[in-house]
Every structure is written in structure tokens, then in C-alpha cells.
Amino acid sequence: MITFRRVTENDFPLLARWLSHPHVARWWNHEVTAEAVARDFGASARGEEPSEDSLALDDGTPVGLLQRARWHDYPEYVDELAPFWPAPAEAVTIDYLIGEGRLVGNGLGTRVLIEFTADTWRRYPAATCVVVPVAAGNVASWRALEKAGYRRVAEAHLTPDNPIDPTDHVVMAIDRPAR
User: Fold this and answer.
1) CA 49, 144, 138, 105 torsion-angle sign
2) What percent of the chain has pLDDT over 90?
3) Residue 129 belongs to what H/E stretch?
4) How does pLDDT run across 116-137, given as a tens digit for each residue?
5) Which residue ranges form the domains of the chain, and what is each CATH number?
6) Which residues neighbour 39 within 8 Å (Cβ) at sequence distance 6 or greater?
7) pTM for this one?
8) N or C: which end of the chain has fewer CB within 10 A?
9) To 5 degrees, how large is the angle CA 100–CA 138–CA 15?
10) How far apart are CA 43 and CA 49, in angstroms?
């Protein structure tokens, strides 16, 4: 069973370890010092930022990190995406990683995405869709989104998370199911 809980400062060593793994570091390009993790995840953990950082738990064991935010809480990202696909006013975005390499490639990511998307509909009743830009080269990521029911809505040139990547992104989206 996949469940979620908010990241706390006690989780920072786990996040640092995950972010240092090659399969994560390739796409997240994140500093892994204690100071950097506290700087980048602290405000969310303390509830001082509009985004949420959550751990995905598989039968109670942490397996991944998920981030979620309303697009329009971050206007600079809305503006960057707008020439390629205009994010609706109540659109939400997510980002995600599976922490341990041995857990990648067996459908866990898709299961986590399905459950986190369902959780988004519950927690954000006004959300009309979830929109996720993914580096075009990160095929495993956008394929997991497809398997979770997302569809490609655009191709875009966006600032990559990792400066070694080109600006090519695929924009994946899923609409709120009819009630």
C-alpha cells in the first residue's frame, strides 16, 4: 500500500542519501550536503512555502520523494511554460523520485504516481489538472507518467534541472476525472 507523509527535518539525511545516488543525481542535480538539503527542503518542511514535499511510503517504508505545488504559486514557472502550454489557473504540478536504484524499473514509480495523483484530487479540490514538464531525455520518467494515465500535451524548451541537459522537455498532463 502506497501512502504519503510530509517531509520533516528528520528526513533530511535520507533525502541527502537519495539525492546522491547516480540514478537520482543524473536528473535532480542537487547538492547533498546537510546545509544544502536544509536550505532547499527546510522551508517546505516548516510549512513556510506553498509547495509540499512528501515521502512516498510502501507499506510504511520510505521509497521516494514527491513535490507538489500549484503552478500559479510560482509565476516565473508559469511564464516560462506559457509559450508552449498555458497552465490553467488551478493547475498543480508534481516532481518525484524513487530513492533506491534497486526499486527502479519494477512499476513502483507508476504506482506512486497513480496514488499521488489521486491524493492530489483529494487535497486540491479546485485542481483541474496536473501538469508535469519532464526533460525529454528522461524517458523513464515520462513513460512512468504515461503508464499512470498522463498524456503528452506539449513539447517545450525550458530551463533544465541539470545544466548538462538540453532545454527539450515533454509536458505531460492529466485532467481531473469527471465527478
Assistant:
1) positive
2) 94
3) strand 129-135
4) 999 999 999 999 999 999 999 9
5) 2-175 (3.40.630.30)
6) none
7) 0.94
8) C
9) 30
10) 6
